[in-house]
Amino acid sequence: MTKPMLETKSLVRRFGGLVATDNLDLTVLDCETHAIIGPNGAGKTTLVAQLAGELKPTSGQIFLAGKQITDLPMAARAKLGVARSFQITSLCGEYSAIENVALAVQAHRGHGFRMWGRVRSDQSLFASARRYLDLVNLADRANVSAALLAYGEQRQLEVAIALACEPRVLLLDEPMAGMGRDESLKMIRLLKSLKGRTTMVLIEHDMDAVFALADRITVLVYGRSIATGLPSEIAANPLVRSAYLGEGSVSRA
Question: Which fold has domain 1-81+167-253?
């Protein structure tokens, strides 16, 4: 049986009187693509922030490959192989695509952020960066400034930067956000090509993308998991249809 790569046990996150994550048990298997879906306000991005180490849980535990990482900060988790892409692009716009990825390669090698002039002279960084750009189909845009890339290309570049960290877990927070149909289809094809390469946790509102990519799906409502299963099981689940897919609503009780 495939072992868990990422787990939460009785995870809780409160903001004052608001419970954003409500006693959540989640298991993400090694090398699976696990989608987290739910209506607005379900606590999806709050969950990802806790998994990444950006936000500390109120209580509960988080495990990476069996090792507890609950109290580790974001940088420490990144060193262990947890990488995150964001809803909003966060690129160095004045640098080219390949320079953005080279910076990520440099950081992953443990050199921190050295003087950029020295980085530019390190051809091994750029050789590695070009391989990641090739993985996301951006090799022909390597020397274009990030700010001048099309929006969909910027999201592809973010994936290349995340891959440059050689992640064991890739946290994807709405990678299709703001994209048109053609751009979304390109991103779906890209993420499909990465399936099995690394464990992916996908937060996404685009249900076509979710059902095209996910091996399993967890549905959150008010910070609670109401169902986890194969895409076909989730699509047929009456509670999920009531809570999220448009047939009524679910009670907090």
Answer: Rossmann fold (3.40.50)
